[in-house]
TrEMBL record, chain A:
Molecular functions (GO terms): zinc ion binding
Protein name according to UniProt: Putative zinc-finger
Keyword Membrane: yes
Domain of life: Bacteria
Keywords in alphabetical order: Membrane, Metal-binding, Transmembrane, Transmembrane helix, Zinc, Zinc-finger
UniProtKB/TrEMBL annotation, chain B:
Originating species: Streptomyces prasinopilosus
Single Gene Ontology MF annotation: ATP binding
Protein name according to UniProt: ABC-2 type transport system ATP-binding protein
Family: Belongs to the ABC transporter superfamily.
Residue ranges annotated for the ABC transporter domain, each copy included: 27-258
Membrane-traversing stretches: none
Signal sequence region: none
Alphabetized UniProt keyword annotations: ATP-binding, Nucleotide-binding, Transport
Keyword ATP-binding: yes
InterPro entries cross-referenced by the UniProt entry: AAA+_ATPase, ABC_transporter-like_ATP-bd, P-loop_NTPase
Superkingdom, natural source: Bacteria
Length: 269, 277
């Protein structure tokens, strides 16, 4: 920049203690020095060359500081940023979910399945629920109480974690569904509906408990009859989609209405 | 005047620091009731007013100390009465986002992520507390230095001793420069030298912060606190200086120090039935 810099006379006068400068000049030089690296460098050159008393004082201060600075760890550069989307303890869960999907897929492809029923279709809706439970659960997140007490706690954080779980699980399911020829529409809506229902119920009884209840209901109402009769349950065929849509809307509605529940410790222990 | 990438000098006092406060007490409770679990009323009709300083929260186990601190941290909603924090009502159903940014909280069971380094954990907490992004590195460094962990800042938390983990807990509580600092049993797991250091830190913080420390160690209170709050069965039994507490006890009361005698005198008043313990 071509802005004005302090004159050599001012810098020199300041280096000698400012006694032969007017008070307003000292003030102006000081204010300029705070903001101008060029003039600071000129000042230090002047001090080193012409004012040995100040130079030795600076050296003494530095030699006192150096041992302290040596033991103080400085911030390492280019560190990885801590997880903003998932807590470290949750990370294994989406991985497990992807693993389950893959094994269901393998079983499907190997043809050891149950007649016309696709295993991927059977497990898809409940898998994200497990991940969601892990990401917002008192038992699985050691820093749960700290997290809940933070300003950022509440629905946005819950949704952020849910989104990251779905972000890991849905692509795996999509790939599995594509490989086995199950249409995405058949499982995606139940999958989202179950996730919303877990959060909605979780606001009242705790997300872990909600996930356990819903998974049990799923196993009893859908999985068991399907395996027993070897044909896809009616709820999972296209005719069931409006019902799943309704459940999804209901779940989302309850979550929004009860959004305060996610920033307090529930009565459930 | 400026050249290229110079840092702008920040003034030491911001407008927020200089603004007059709109409240008389940082913490004010009248007839406060807070439930622990579904049925038990752990805090039952508590009247309390706390200003700047270090307040020691004393009481036997089950007196309602932790429940009270959780209510002050706004993670438990009051079941009755009023609670005002920094002039804002902490009842209601809102998330108290702005209020929480000015509160620091160390829970009794301090859970942490074992694979995080000290710096990463405190940084993560600073993010959760919505500390402005540009200020996070400096705030983290300052908090870690204040609890004396600057030389271990880049070690993983699983490599730390119990006392050090506790200090990380204190660092995360002060990382947002809180106006109300709530510490639930911060001295648990600290060795005597560390406890002395913590007391000094508390005194330092207490000059401009409302610090509430729950403890069951009477000597912590004598050394670090400007004010003692004695709770029993969810009610306020006594509030005053440590000297007042000592004066309440006589030679006939149980205890090895004047404070302990005062403590047992106030808790075992006439007409109280208690077990042998």
């Amino acid at each position: 920049m071509t802005a004005e810099h302090a004159s050599a006379r001012l810098i020199e006068g300041y280096a000698r203690g400012g006694t032969d400068l007017a008070a307003d000049e000292v003030w102006a030089v000081e204010a300029h020095l705070e903001a101008c690296r060029v003039c600071r460098d000129r000042l230090s050159a002047t001090v080193g060359a012409e004012v040995p008393a100040v130079a030795s004082l600076v050296d003494t201060v530095w030699s006192g500081l150096e041992p302290l600075l040596a033991v103080t760890a400085t911030m390492p550069r280019g560190r990885r940023r801590p997880a903003r989307w998932l807590t470290p303890t949750t990370a294994p869960w989406p991985a497990m979910v992807v693993g389950v999907t893959l094994s269901a897929l393998l079983l499907d492809l190997a043809g050891t399945g149950f007649g016309e029923v696709s295993l991927v279709l059977l497990v898809a809706p409940v898998l994200p629920v497990l991940g969601v439970a892990a990401s917002w659960s008192r038992g699985l997140d050691p820093a749960y109480e700290l997290t809940v007490s933070a300003p950022r706690a509440g629905l946005p954080l819950v949704l952020r974690r849910t989104a990251s779980v779905l972000g890991a699980v849905v692509p795996a399911l999509l790939a599995g569904g594509w490989a086995t020829g199950v249409s995405a529409a058949q499982w995606l809506l139940p999958c989202l509906a179950f996730t919303a229902a877990t959060l909605a119920l979780g606001g009242a009884v705790g997300v872990t408990r909600a996930a356990a209840v819903l998974a049990a209901v799923w196993a009893a109402v859908i999985v068991a009859p399907t395996l027993a009769t070897s044909r896809t349950a009616a709820a999972l065929q296209t005719g069931g989609l409006p019902a799943w849509g309704l459940l999804l809307v209901l779940g989302v509605g309850v979550v929004i209405a009860r959004r305060d529940a996610y920033s307090v410790l529930g009565a459930h222990r | 005047m400026t050249t290229g990438k110079e840092h702008r000098m920040t003034s030491a006092a911001s407008a927020a620091d200089l603004a007059p406060t709109a409240y008389a007490w940082e913490i004010r409770a009248t007839g406060l009731k807070v439930r622990a679990g579904r049925r038990r009323m752990a805090v039952d009709g508590l009247d309390l007013a706390l200003g700047t300083g270090v307040h020691g929260l004393l009481g036997p186990n089950g007196a309602g100390k932790t429940t009270l601190i959780r209510a002050l941290a706004t993670v438990l909603r009051p079941a009755g009465g009023t609670l005002e924090l920094l002039g804002e009502s902490a009842g209601g159903r809102s998330g108290h986002r702005a209020l929480r940014r000015r509160i620091g909280y160390l829970p009794q069971e301090f859970g942490y992520y074992r694979r995080f380094t000290v710096r990463e954990f405190v940084e993560y907490m600073a993010w959760l507390k919505e500390v402005p992004k540009a200020e996070v590195p400096a705030a983290v460094q300052r908090a870690v230095e204040r609890v004396g962990l600057a030389d271990r800042a880049d070690e993983r938390m699983k490599a730390l001793s119990g006392g050090m983990v506790r200090r990380v807990g204190i660092a995360q509580a002060i990382v947002n420069d809180p106006v109300i600092l709530l510490l639930d049993e911060p001295t648990a797991g600290l060795d005597p030298a560390q406890r002395l250091r913590l007391r000094k830190l508390l005194q330092e913080l207490g000059t401009d912060t409302c610090v509430v420390v729950s403890t069951h160690l009477v000597e912590d209170v004598a050394a670090a606190c400007t004010d003692v709050v004695l709770l029993d069965e969810g009610r306020l039994v006594f509030q005053g200086t440590p000297d007042d507490l000592a004066a309440a006890g006589g030679p006939g009361h149980m205890g090895d120090s004047p404070l302990e005698r005062g403590y047992s005198a106030l808790l075992r008043g006439p007409g109280r039935e208690r077990g042998a313990w």
